[in-house]
Amino acid sequence: MPTGTPPTPPRTDTTRAQPARVYDWLLGGKDNYPVDEAVGRRLPPQAKDAARQNRAFMHRATAWLADQGVDQFLDIGTGIPTEPNLHQIVQRVVPAARIVYVDNDPIVLRHAEALLVSSPEGTTEYVQADVRDPGGILRHARDVLDFSRPVALSLIALLHFLPDDQDPQGIVRELVDALPPGSALVLSHAASDLHSDLARQVTEEYARAGIRLGFRTRDEVARFFDGLDLVDPGLVTAPEWFRTEPAPAEEDSGIHAGVARVPSGGTA
Q: Region (Disordered) spans which residues (predicted)?
């Protein structure tokens, strides 16, 4: 069941596009506004494929970690809930699992209160916060999660909304350094080196809406996993990442994705 009392969200700004709502539109959702739809319609058709591939990777990675016994998840950049949500996937395997969702868009809070409802045995909590305040996120998360045991940190399609001048490497390092051995980092990231023309078009369209992007090469994305042990198949495209059969259908993708464990000696 949800715990705590969420803060009163600020008024939703419907005059500016927001990443969570554009993503909702790309996934075929209804919880977006004309300004978000306008951005989505200007994106290349492959953007919808990328959103679908990204979501499917999250499902596979989350289910696998739950099968491995991980029962605590910190999902930053949650987005507008789209079923099945992360907690539903996890709690099918581990009903008593505890999940903390984090997003900075007030519309996400509104939907979270209604839709991110835990199994009776488990816990879900929603925190309205910005990934650029990792310390604040960790303080809230510790109210729900036990950081003496493994925690899965989920950063799905989030970091490409942090250009280099916002220090995404430092943010990820602070978050990962808080994780005990056996924890995991689940990460997906838009690529700048797989379909450079499309990446440039997407970046330009988001910029027109006042949203800065920082797509990255595979080597640049790999740096987020420094000091961690990548699990097979390593850092691959989103449709290529799977651990159990059936294998996803082979398809082109512009999303780098990977899962890594915090080693027993901690991060370097």
A: 247-268
Cβ atoms of 253 and 53 within 8 Å: the answer is: yes
Residue 152, helix vs strand vs coil: strand
- Residue 235 region, left (φ>0) first, then alpha (ψ -120 to 50), else beta? beta
Q: Which helix (H) or strand (E) holds 224?
A: none
Tell me which of 190 and 80 has the higher pLDDT. Answer: 190
191 SS3 class: strand
Residue 250 has pLDDT above 60, yes or no: yes
First to last CA, the chain: 36
User: CA-to-CA distance for 171 and 169, rounded, in angstroms?
Assistant: 5
Q: What is the mean pLDDT of residues 39-60?
A: 96
Question: H-type helices in the chain, by residue range?
Answer: 19-26, 34-42, 46-67, 86-93, 106-115, 134-141, 168-177, 196-208, 218-222
**DSSP assignment letter at 225:** G
What is the rounded CA–CA span in Å between residue 16 and residue 209? 7
User: pLDDT per residue over 62-119, tens digit each?
Assistant: 999 999 999 999 999 988 878 888 999 999 999 999 999 999 988 887 777 766 777 8
10 pLDDT band, cuts 50/70/90, is low
Q: Cα(112)–Cα(114) distance, rounded to whole angstroms?
A: 5
In sequence order, what DSSP letters do the residues of 235-265 get, joined into one string? SEEGGG--SSSSPPPP----EEEEEEEPPTT
Q: How far is CA 116 from CA 2, 101, 124, 216, 226, in A?
A: 8, 9, 7, 31, 32
Q: Phi and psi for 125 in degrees, rounded to 5? A: -135, 145
